[in-house]
Design brief:
Bound molecules: adenosine-5'-triphosphate, magnesium ion
Strand order of the largest sheet: 6-7-8-3-9-10
Distance between the termini: 32 Å
Order of helices and strands: EEEHEEHEHHHEHEEE
Largest sheet: 6 strands, mixed
CATH architecture: 3-Layer(aba) Sandwich
CATH superfamily: P-loop containing nucleotide triphosphate hydrolases
Radius of gyration: 17 Å
Length: 225
């Protein structure tokens, strides 16, 4: 039963970039355990390795050494194809720069993960657009939307297929303070309603008020703040 496992488990994870003389050691012997349903905030100076850590947990990159398990599945060992399948089915990503497909409408962007997972019922996409207050923008090309609206579309895309783990990398970094706050409130509300696990890297202190746990990267390790 997958429920016996922590949502995220990292053991002795190291990540280097480059090799030999130009080798950079970004993470050293990282230990991290995150429980199901936790909202975890990740702080750390620019360049400390927040995006690197999220990329490892999100199976976008591999650790140099160490073990990474998501819901009890050891993703650090999976082959490329299995990693892609795993990402598609079990994870949701929210980025600073939204990363939407500009030629598609809001609705088409949001339903993409359903299509990729072979789900042809569009109800979840319509429902989440409603939850995000975007019902009037469903048919708009995302290029015509404001930054805050684009980020709401991106939240819809990250959540529409009900992934167990959501990774957000500075989701408010391109937004004004008020819009950023609204985005955090939306993410918090939706993720808690569904009991999903959320890890958010950010420089924004106000997120602390929403979090169950606050972590930071210090001396190339993850520590509680
Ligand atoms: N693909 C890569 N190849 C080589 N070096 C990289 C790569 N990605 C990140 N780095 C380096 O690893 C270090 C950590 O980068 P990372 O992007 O994880 O930091 P961050 O904490 O997310 O910073 P920020 O707050 O500015 O987003 C930096 O020194 C960066 O230059
Ligand atoms: Mg980063």
């Amino acid at each position: 039963m997958a429920n016996e496992y922590p949502a995220v488990n990292l053991s002795r994870v190291c990540k280097n970039y480059g090799q030999a003389l130009i080798k950079q050691r970004v993470l050293i012997d990282v230990e991290l355990r995150i429980n199901r349903g936790e909202f975890v905030v990740l702080f750390g100076r620019s360049g400390s390795g927040k995006s690197t850590l999220l990329n490892l947990i999100g199976a976008m990159d591999r650790p140099t050494s160490g073990l990474i398990e998501i819901d009890g599945i050891q993703i650090s060992n999976l082959k490329e194809r299995a990693r892609t399948e795993f990402r598609r089915a079990s994870l949701g990503f929210i980025f600073q720069a939204y990363n939407l497909i500009p030629t598609l409408t809001a609705f088409e962007n949001v339903k993409l993960p359903l299509t990729l997972n072979g789900i042809f019922d569009e109800t979840p996409a319509l429902k989440i657009l409603n939850d995000l207050g975007l019902e009037n923008k469903a048919g708009s090309s995302v290029e015509d939307l404001s930054g805050g609206e684009q980020q709401r579309v991106a939240i819809g895309r990250a959540l529409v297929h009900s992934p167990s783990l959501i990774l957000a990398d500075e989701p408010t970094g391109n937004l004004d303070i008020e819009t950023g706050h609204e985005i955090i409130r939306l993410i918090d509300g939706l993720v808690r309603r569904n009991g999903q696990t959320l890890i958010m890297a950010t420089h924004s202190q106000e997120v602390i008020g929403y979090a169950d746990r606050v972590l930071t990267i210090r001396d190339r390790k993850v520590v509680e703040l």
